[in-house]
Amino acid sequence: MSVKLIVARGANGAIGKDNDLIWKLPRDMRFFTETTTGGIVIMGRKNWDSIPLKYRPLTNRVNVVVTRNEDFESDDCVVCPSIEDAIGYFSHDTEKDIFIIGGGQIYKYCLDNDLVDEMYITEVRQEFDADVYFPDFDEGQWQKELLMEYKADEKHKYDFDIYRFTRN
To answer: Which of 36, 67, 102, 130 could form a disulfide with 14 if both were Cys (CB 3.0 to 4.6 A apart)?
Structure first.
């Protein structure tokens, strides 16, 4: 079983503002959907709350919410008190990939505690005003592979690149 992380970040690490995405990039959203479909997505409660009701739970994926709030309940997801518990809960399911999908505190915890084997990072080539940022990490510990380059067009206001990072 491998644990993967998937995120889109601005050139300054920005990933969100006011509990929402900062940009609309349909091609990147399609990449996210195609990559995570059939897998297990682990997210924090704020990230869960930010998903519009019409898209929640994320379809064709097992949705897992990590929260310290013992009163949090939802019929649409598995609730776990920690990331380790969430990963452990699915350790028997070797058929499905586990994806860490945010938010900022969850990403930081996973990177600080070496819980991630692989990362898919969309680099949006623009700096943004945000209140949530993707944490810095030592790129020297990772192999970086370009998966896609995308130029701004009528549906995409910004250029972006999608990279796959694997541990050295």
So the answer is: 130
The helix/strand/coil state of 37 is coil
| Of the candidates 113, 168, 114, 109, the residue with the CA atom closest to the CA atom of residue 144 | 168
Which helix H or strand E contains 50, and what residues bound it?
helix 45-50
Residue type at 91 in one-letter notation = S
What DSSP assignment string belongs to 144-166? EEEEEEE--BTTBSS-EEEEEEE
CATH architecture of 3-167: 3-Layer(aba) Sandwich (3.40)
Taken as a whole, the chain contains a residue count of: 168
32-62: pLDDT as tens digits: 999 999 999 999 999 999 999 999 999 999 9
Alpha-carbon distance of 4 to 60, in angstroms, equals 17
Distance (Å, whole) CA 65 – CA 61: 13
Question: CA torsion sign, 105 to 57 to 37 to 161?
Answer: negative
Residue 156 CB-half CA count within 13 A: 18
Three-state DSSP class for residue 3: strand
